Amino acid sequence: xxxxxxxxxxxxxxxxxxxxxxxxxxxxxxxxxxxxxxxxxxxxxxxxxxxxxxxxxxxxxxxxxxxxxxxxxxxxx
Length: 77
Fold this sequence. Notes:
Number of domains: 1
Strand content: under 5%
Oligomer: single chain
Number of strands: 0
Number of helices: 4
Structural class: mainly alpha
Helix content: over 70%
């Protein structure tokens, strides 16, 4: 685990979004307009910031959580 290095939440969010290869302006637009996927990602990023995770750890956890979320969503359909 890397030492926590993000004093500002906005920098942490930007770094995570870029690491996930998502366009920042499009992501924020969708969060503001309550797009389900982006809203969930934003909530996850916020929780990981609160838990003081590093950017690398956060990205890996998001990948795992996203895969689990998508698998459970598909199995319900």
